[in-house]
Write a structure and sequence with these properties.
single chain; alpha/beta; seven-stranded mixed sheet; two-stranded antiparallel sheet; 13 strands; 44% helix; 25% strand
Length: 301
């Protein structure tokens, strides 16, 4: 009879590409992974991996087995979720990945509420950029992910994922205080297309969105700097270097020399959380969604 634990090891090797990476993902030693793999090879009576540089390559038999292992592990996750739902206990360990602005804007209140209401639940938080989160979820390194979609640029989720909306996040235009537009009460989108922009990291989801948003309206983006860090952008704007689209969620205090002006039509991001569908019945999943939504209401007040 095949062991679920050994199938989990083979699946981790397939996902991560090496025995050492699999051991890190499973939080066990390299030796333990090698032993489990050797036992599984004896059980199936044929080799499952071949050396490939610093990593390993799956044999045809292993690829066949991994396909079954994915379905088996999904059923195990579903069974665990059903048992938790039957007990109706919000307990255990839940790994949550989130983008930086969501961590600043929502997670402090949400995590505090979860700790007070569900002391048996341990939430492990990991900060990741949007382009890192989906691969992390696919590798099984997180149980839930808190992300955003810009209007017109949704993140495609693969099959087997479920999602829940949390809130909408409106963005303003950050300008140097001495800019001619800085004392406007409201900016029209067409007025700002030619601004010198401080965008996000080059090639990121948000940077791509900024380029597309301007081009859809007949402009050509003039990017003067690509900066990811929130406070660095504000420092550059205060120095008169450029302008930026600044979401309100997690914004925090502004430095002197920066003005935030709303824009019409509004630039909106949809904030949502997603998880593997086979874990949907976990009470912990529902508790986290509820805590995030309540934190979002408090953020808006």
């Amino acid at each position: 009879m095949l062991s679920v634990d050994r199938l989990r090891v083979l699946h981790a090797i397939a996902v991560h590409g090496s025995l050492s990476a699999a051991s890190q993902a499973l939080h066990v030693t390299n030796s333990a992974v090698s032993q489990q793999l050797a036992k599984l090879e004896r059980e199936v009576g044929q080799p499952l991996v071949e050396r490939n540089g610093r990593g390993v390559r799956l044999t045809a038999a292993a690829e066949l087995l991994v396909d079954h292992a994915s379905r088996i592990l999904s059923l195990v996750h579903q069974a665990e979720a059903d048992l938790e739902a039957h007990r109706d206990d919000v307990t255990g360990h839940l790994r949550l990945s989130a983008i930086p602005t969501a961590i600043r804007g929502l997670l402090p209140r949400a995590l505090l509420a979860l700790r007070e209401e569900h002391p048996g639940l341990h939430v492990e938080l990991s900060e990741e950029e949007p382009h890192e989160i989906l691969p992390s979820m696919m590798r099984g390194e997180a149980d839930m992910a808190l992300v955003v979609d810009w209007d017109g640029a949704p993140m495609p989720l693969p099959e087997g994922m479920s999602r829940a909306p949390i809130t909408d996040d409106v963005s303003d235009i950050a300008l140097p205080a001495d800019h001619p537009l800085a004392h406007s009460e409201l900016l029209q989108l067409d007025e700002i297309l030619d601004l010198p922009w401080i965008s996000w990291s080059r090639g990121s989801i948000c940077d791509d969105w900024l380029h597309d948003m301007i081009r859809r309206r007949g402009g050509e983006p003039r990017i003067v700097h690509n900066v990811e860090e929130h406070q660095t952008k504000l420092a550059l704007i205060a120095a008169g270097i450029g302008a930026a689209v600044m979401p309100r969620m997690g914004r925090g205090p502004l430095p002197e020399g920066v003005r935030m002006i709303p824009v019409q039509p509004a630039l909106v991001r949809q904030v949502y959380v997603f998880w593997r569908t086979d874990a949907s019945r976990r009470p912990a999943i529902r508790a986290v969604v509820r805590a995030l939504r309540e934190a979002a209401v408090e953020e808006d007040e």
